[in-house]
Amino acid sequence: MVAIPHGDDHGGAYGDDKPGFFARWFYSTNHKDIGTLYLIFGIISGLIGGYLSFMMRMELAAPGISVFNSEHDYLVFASMHGLIMIFFMVMPALIGGFGNWFVPIMIGAPDMAFPRMNNLSFWLLPTALICLLISFFVPGSASGNGFGGGWVMYPPLSTSGSPGPAFDFIIIGLLAAGFSSIFGAINFITTILNMRAPGMTMHKMPLFAWSVLVTAFLLLLALPVLAASLFMLFTDRIDGGTGFFDPAMGGDPEMFQHLFWFFGHPEVYIMILPAFGIVSHVVSTFSKKPVFGYLGMAYAMVAIGVVGFVVWAHHMYTVGMDVDLKAYFLAATLVIAVPTGVKIFSWLATMWGGSISFSIPMQWALAFIFLFVVGGVTGVMLANAGVDVALHDTYYVVAHFHYVLSMGAVFGIFCGFYYWFGKMSGYLYNKWLAAAHFWLFFIGVNVIFFPQHFLGLNSMPRRYIDYPAEFELWNQVSSAGALITLAGVFFFFVMLIEAFVRKRPAGENYWGEGATTLEWTLPSPPPFHIFNTLPRIEESDEH
Amino acid sequence: MRLKRLILASSAAFFALTATALAAKPTDGGYWLQEAATPVMEDLHWLHNFVSWIILAITLFVMVLMAYIMFRFSAKRNPVPSKTTHHVGLEVAWTIIPVIILLIMVVPSMRLLYFQDALPETEMTVKVVGNTWNWEYSYPEFENVESYISNPLEKEDAEAAGVPYLLATDAPLVVPVNTKVKVLVTSSNNLHSFAMPAFGVKMDAVPGRINETWFEVLPGKEGTYYGQCSEICGIKHYKMPIEILVVGKDEFRQWVANDGAFTTSVASVGGGVTAAQE
Predict the structure, then answer these.
(1) Does B65 lie at the interface with A, CB-CB under 8 angstroms?
(2) Nearest residue on chain B to A355, judged by CA atoms?
């Protein structure tokens, strides 16, 4: 996409009157500052969630129970790892962080449509995370503190199985996080539909803005269902309360699973679509070519979003559903492979004929594309309801969704982070430290998760603190991968510290001719207030 | 059928390594599905191998294509980028070809689904109840066989008996070979899932609901089979294994005539089977 603003009103022409520290970071209504807060929050949550998973991997390094004091603690770690990584790391980083920072800039808007609601969206999240952290230290069930019913929170384990206040804190926390996302979604939809700069038609809008728009609609439609089902759990948990999911009171525990996955499946696209957007820009920038098949790319995301709402029960093939219903979900799920294929091949076609430089963001993007294919094709396997009977709830599923999340969404986050780090901070990072981070992380996560396919095929179930000696080899390999990944995370922080200590200034457009979206027309970091005069997008039929 | 055999044969050749390692339980270092003991699992194997070939081919195709692009169009070799952004033929092709591949896949997939799910005329029934944390088995058609609890063996007991810890139990579910068995699955408390990998069986145990599934162990496949609870059910989720002892039809009749006596302890199970086989 070629988007050239009229007039050269950067730099000194902007008002740059930043408020004092407290007012700036705690009352902030500036989309860039809120974006930064989201990113810092995402990094902190990522450390907490990463710690939880690292401890689990250490426990599973050998048969027997050695790291955890109780079986309950392991389940608490497993459950909280999922919830924290999804709601407090991936979503805040991709949508709150990069979305806030770059959607307004890319569409040529001075800020988000509702800056104060933006502030509320962010500050609900730390509140929510604190609720989740409190749950670790208050009674969950007779077995100990914290909630150990899995991130999916299926009743009866989350109702009669966890009578303590720990799960109530989780419900409150997730409701707060859900409202945060709903407010954020309303804000993005309003901003994107109403505040595009003159000449920026929908079909000229950068793909990252498209991805956030589709994501925002998914959030707006899916999160209320989660809120409702959490509230139903809440009233079910009260003594003498409701019995929505209690068979003794005429309810059905499977109804919760339908409600949960009606939210849960769109949720996986909520986590991956913004990464699709980021990768599109990075691939285009470093191939020095416009995105191939722009319209196909945009509408593939819309198609993924729409179909994503009608496939939820493929998470429930073994609950005893009617066979015709399973047949429908099987077919519908396979359909998703088509628009996903369009994305993959369009990225490859964008590179085809390009002049590719393998800078750090491009390395993350290339790894993203390849690993997302690996995670995607095992999804095709799991869509086959007949085969899924052997694989459901085994490590094959764990491997599958970590390939699309731990290597899809997270690689998308790092891809965006390295792409825009100079733009956001104004400083350039050290290439060698960033490369060490990338390679250790890339090797590490593959060593963790590839052998888990074998464990799953060989039938090892999920959420086990201890396993028969027959599963030892691949578990050992997987845990060794966790150590490699940890070293990668270490280099990420060294890279961050080094960049902020050395303060190598980043120019306006440090990626050169390939970077064509509006953020590259602004200084790095952009001034506090931007686009006081709206940019005008020139007539151009080239995308 | 011919295509199926061909693919079976080539998969068998490719995955021959696993053939010796497979048993009725997981194997250390094993990297494929456990060996099939029922027709459903045989078909599941076939479909899994078939889809594995397709997804392996797609992954390799993308990998090779990417490697080529990275080599051919690097900034060094191709300093001047093209400005191509559309190619209708290509875009149609990469929409249509995946659709065709999926259509080829969906036919055997549906066949397996309906084969697995539609209960045939079964010859006998077992009822399975998931408790926190053990399994309870009963035989509604044999009134003299009382329902019994199948508890996991502790580590020392399993080692002493030479059976795998976290898989072996003190009382297996006993079923005859070459017989279509209907399995009714329910739960007394939390969710559980009754899973037997070698049978291609996994059915959630849901309180307030009775799910049904079935299996038929192929002739010559008598022996002990192990599975594990496959839906999170609380702190002992990892420790409620499922053990199924498949015996000959005559041995099974004898076992029923003995009021299911030889399932009271591991020692007598082993002894009973040996005696029956002699």
Answers:
(1) yes
(2) B75
Contact A344 B62 (CB under 8 A): yes
Greatest Cα pair distance in chain B: 85
The string over A152-174, giving b where at least 16 C-beta atoms fall within 10 Å of a residue's C-beta and e elsewhere, is: bbbbbbbbbbbebbbbbbbbbbb
> Tens digit of pLDDT for each residue in A242-286?
999 999 999 999 999 999 999 999 999 999 999 999 999 999 999
ipTM above 0.90, yes or no: yes
Per residue in A371-386, pLDDT (tens digit) is 999 999 999 999 999 9
Closest CA to B119 of B211, B178, B209, B182: B182
Average pLDDT, chain A: 94
- Whether A151 is a known active-site residue: answer yes
Nearest-angstrom CA–CA distance, A357 and A494: 24
Q: Is B191 in contact with A323 (Cβ distance < 8 A)?
A: no
Q: Does residue B2 surpass a pLDDT of 80?
A: no
Which pLDDT belongs to residue A540? 58
> Active-site residue among A269, A294, A427, A511?
A269
How is residue A409 annotated by DSSP?
A: I
Catalytic residue flag (residue A343): yes
Residue B206: which of A291, A319, A327 has the nearest Cβ? A319
Kindly report, residue by residue over B36-93, the tens digit of the pLDDT: 999 999 999 999 999 999 999 999 999 999 999 999 999 999 999 998 888 999 999 9
Measured CA to CA, the distance from residue A349 to residue A253 in angstroms comes to 47
How far is it, in rounded angstroms, from Cα A292 to Cα A56? 42
Residues of A in Cβ contact (< 8 Å) with B68:
none
Q: Which two tokens stand for residue A333?
A: 């799920």
Residue B17 contacts A, CB cutoff 8 Å: no
Cis ω for the linkage preceding B133 (within 30 of 0): yes
How many other C-beta atoms lie within 10 A of the C-beta of residue B88? 8
- Within 10 A of A324 (CB to CB), how many other CB atoms are there? 10
For residue A518, the tally of other CB atoms under 10 A from its CB is 25
The catalytic position among A57, A289, A343, A437 is: A343
Residue A326: C-alpha distances to residues A348, B96, B215 (Å): 34, 25, 19
Check CB contact of B120 with chain A, cutoff 8 Å.
Answer: no
Q: Chain-centre distance of CA B109, in angstroms? A: 16
Is the C-alpha dihedral spanning A40, A45, A51, A56 positive or negative? negative
* Residues 6+ positions from A4 with CB-CB distance below 8 Å: A521, A535, A537, A538
> A53, A181, A350, A394: which one is catalytic?
A181
Strand partners, B184: B127, B212
Is A520 one of the annotated active-site residues of the chain?
no
CB contact under 8 A, B228 and A378: no
Choosing among A141, A470, A540, which should be mutated to test the B contact, i.e. which has the most B CBs within 10 A? A470
